[in-house]
Amino acid sequence: MHSTPPALIDIGLNLTHDSFDSDRKTVIQRAQDAGVSRMILTGASLDGSRQALDLARDYPGVLYATAGIHPHHAKEVHGDTWHVLRELHALPEVLAVGECGLDWFRDLSPRPTQEKVFIQHLELAVQNQLPMFLHQRDASDAFVSILADFRERLSRVVVHCFTDSRKALFALLDLDCHIGLTGWICDERRGRHLKELVPSIPADRLMIETDAPYLMPRDLDPKPDTQRNEPMYLPHIAREIARCADKPEDQLARETTTVASAFFQLPSTPQTGTGASA
Ligand SMILES: [Zn+2]
């Protein structure tokens, strides 16, 4: 008998991205073969959220979706948006409100619009009590102050792809947020400060994600021919986080899977997709 490593959960990836159009099925199979048993597809626009739902429905028990409007798309919100999101959030495959939040790094929507749309998502999550999947870049103070006003009335909250400072991390932990880490941590230069912060993230608040097709881990060996990130690289990211946390890979895998299962209220027995069931 050999022990198989615990199945991982990728809490944020964009499998509906057109870079996966030609081989999506293979990408999902490769991820499952690598031990990534469940994946939560990020809905970042109205169309994107619908597409994530459709794809999740093709893989019951393996793929799930979130539904929300990324701050880049905040300026596209119209009257119908909230009605459609409400309908999506009522479906069993849709596990969280988001991706939403603030992005003042790229500023693709005006900041006041981003704030307004972020607040509208928070109000929605107060009503439906779904967990929230949040994005924050270069807007920590505004983000924390808006979130703080709502925090007591919300259920669980994850700030995904955390890359910010120690101060920002502790402000989020003070607000009882979960933290999502990506392959950003594998970047020798950009990820250095993040590596040092890993031991400060409590095990019961840490989850892992690829954000595929973005954020390819920069230290893969051999280097893939393409810059397209895939969920099959999640174990590689987990390995680096385990190293930073100074704990065995298996333990980190078990812990993050337990945390993600509870956060998104997934069934406790992961489907491995390897034909283990009788
Ligand atoms: Zn994001």
Give a brief description.
It contains 9 helices and 8 strands.
Mean pLDDT: 94
Number of domains as seen in the coordinates: 1
Query: Secondary-structure element order, as H and E?
Result: EHEHEHEHEHEHEHEHH
Bound molecules: zinc ion
CATH architecture: Alpha-Beta Barrel
- Give the overall silhouette: globular
The CATH class, by name, is: Alpha Beta
Percent of sequence in beta strands = 15-25%
Q: How many distinct beta strands?
A: 8
Number of alpha- plus pi-helical segments? 9
CATH topology description: TIM Barrel
Name the CATH superfamily classification. Answer: Metal-dependent hydrolases
Q: Tell me the radius of gyration.
A: 18 Å
Q: Which sequence of strands runs across the widest sheet?
A: 1-2-3-4-5-6-7-8
Low-confidence stretches: 270-278
What class would the helix/strand composition place it in?
alpha/beta
The description of the largest β-sheet is:
8 strands, parallel
The proportion of residues forming helix, as a percent range, comes to: 25-40%
- First-to-last CA distance: 17 Å
What does this structure look like?
The protein is built from nine helices and eight strands. The protein has helices at 24-33, 46-58, 79-89, 111-128, 140-150, 166-174, 192-197, 234-245, 249-263; strands at residues 8-13, 36-41, 63-67, 94-103, 132-137, 157-159, 178-181, 206-208. It has 278 residues and is α/β, with parallel strands linked by helices. The longest helix is centred in the middle third of the chain and has 18 residues, at 111-128. It is globular, with a radius of gyration of 18 Å. Strands 1-2-3-4-5-6-7-8 form an eight-stranded parallel beta sheet. It has one domain (8-263): Alpha-Beta Barrel (TIM Barrel). α6 (166-174) links the parallel β6 (157-159) and β7. α4 packs parallel to α5 (140-150) and α8 packs across α9.
